[in-house]
Amino acid sequence: VVEHGQPDRSVVTTCAYCGVGCAFKAELKGNEIVRMMPYKDGKANHGHSCVKGRFAWGYATHKDRMLKPMIRKSIREPWKEVSWEEAIGYAAAEFKRIQADHGRGAVGGLTSSRCTNEEAYLVQKLVRAAFGNNNVDTCARVCHSPTGYGLKTAFGTSAGTQDFDSVMDSDVIFVIGANPTDGHPVFGSRMKRRLREGARLIVADPRRIDLVKSPHIKADYHLQLRPGTNVALVNALAYTVIEEGLANMRFIEERCDPVDFAVWLEFIQRDENRPEAVAERIGVKADDIRAAARLYATGGRAAIYYGLGVTEHSQGSTMVMGMANLAMLTGNIGRRGVGINPLRGQNNVQGSCDMGSFPHELPGYRHISDEVTRRLFEAAWQVELDGEPGFRIPNMLDAAVEGGFKGLYVQGEDIAQSDPNTQHVTAALENMECVVVQDLFLNETANYAHVFLPGSSFLEKDGTFTNAERRISRVRQAIPPMAGYADWEVTMMLSNALGYPMHYDHPSQIMAEIAALTPTFKGVSFERLEELGSIQWPCNDEHPTGTPIMHESMFVRGKGSFVVTEYIPTDEKVGPRFPLLLTTGRILSHYNVGAQTRRTANTAWHPEDLLEIHAHDAEERGIREGDWVAIQSRAGETSLRAKISDRVQPGVVYTTFHHPLTGANVITTENSDWATNCPEYKVTAVQVRLTNTV
Ligand code: SF4
Hints:
The protein has 694 residues and is an alpha/beta fold. 31% of the residues lie in helices and 18% in strands. It has four domains: 52 residues, ADC-like domains (N-terminal domain of TfIIb); 235 residues, 3-Layer(aba) Sandwich (Rossmann fold), CATH 3.40.50; 198 residues, Dimethylsulfoxide Reductase, domain 2, CATH 3.40.228.10; 111 residues, Barwin-like endoglucanases (Beta Barrel). The chain has a seven-stranded mixed sheet with strand order 5-4-19-18-17-6-7, with helices on one face. The structure holds iron/sulfur cluster. The site of iron/sulfur cluster has 14 residues, from helix 1 and helix 7.
């Protein structure tokens, strides 16, 4: 740790990395950060932190920070530093010109889960009110959009059902497609504590994650399924519960829609869902499927925790609904220790979705076509809104390649690195006439930008984040914005230059507007947050201090809905040309594409992405530990160093995605979730060959 002397003040704020949302004390000497210390009264972390959060301030003050606005007429020209006024004026004039030349729908905006609720809210407001369309999306598109679709369909709202502390009451913990000890370390530690106390554990994952076997913890069942077969597994589990008479019929009769249940029951009892019928296809023994189903159904309070290993599939939304079916079937919803809990990758995935960052939904998950809601926002915003859903990110990119989409405002997201099929993304960006990037660094997307607006780090922001347990926490400004303005102020200036006036003196006023227009946020304000420390939405007249556990006496939609979840295999299949399946994940010391963690002291602990390959597959290819290998899919090719590992089974390879040099997304394909377009990052058919050159 680099320390710069004794602090003379401290500011309590929230970590800007993962969805745990740990509270920290930023300790400062003047305006210089001395260190970050976990805050003992933080309700999400109870005084704990992980290595990422402790060192996070390193990137905020890194020398690579871009602090001057810049413009250039073409992406082949060098950047020119300009004043804020000139940069904003240029961007606004270009967006207006594009709309005059190509129509109102030729521009759009992207917000990010790295931004505060208030910032995300303003970006969607700018797009809807100033651009006059609904072409707004968020990076949640590429991670948890299936959670939004699946949980809303089954239960009526797009949110995790429990608070983190609820895990301490679980008797059975079922982890599906998540690696909590690396991806969500502080919550992962709490889960391990409960497991050491005796809770039983089921893990469904193509890779042997640490949780499967670590000191004093051993999973009862590791269902090491083939990538892309989640839905077949969850259906087989539900089949077993029904066939063996383990369903909680009282819960189903009291709490669930009888018509939906009858239709689903007929579906789930089909022979194709029998464990013995799916075992070979998914690579898990039928006996293990049956035993895991029995444990989940009869082991006491059973909770499901899941991550991107569920959502980033062609059937991501189907799988979320499959897990909801299983929870309702066994009555594992609506009380402590149970539930369906998405482990959100980024700190404000929940919040950016809550704030209406989707092309079809206004804040609070209300459909844009709903006239009553639209009228409410029209009256507040003094503007007429378009009632048709706009473009999602993939639609914007496709339209740009085809030539009909020409202008994009990107706040805090690096689509050229984080989105699948990099070649397609860059072709789309190259075809646009005005790309505005608002970020801390000149990221990969900025290579295709015409305007660069310096962003503000979490230490410079004032506002709120909402973590994976729906907990709204304050982000407090520790140092003034290094480039002069916070992100919300920049969006406001851009909107004003576009001709749609926005006037806020402080983010608390933006939150007041959100609360006035969003029933689930009715009781949320900065004053109330100071009083309570943090608040889990819904917070309203019925729940004035927030709601730790959802769906206690009835589901948000009334009766819970069982949904038919037919397993449809992904198009991404192995064959002679691409005989292996690649899946991806995270490592403890890094966060997402690594743009932040690579600029902190964490870098040394994981300097490159590695390809984990089973000894059997390595030997067949003459590959030894540390060799450079080429990894090729039908989308592209990249190079990585090999790591021989028995964490993956023969036929499966695995890598992380934290370093741009290896660029895992060069090889991921355009396959996506049928309902939400969330990319299928977790299944790519590949070939691996020895090169021993980079
Ligand atoms: Fe907490 Fe996640 Fe930040 Fe680690 S990265 S300190 S677990 S919020």
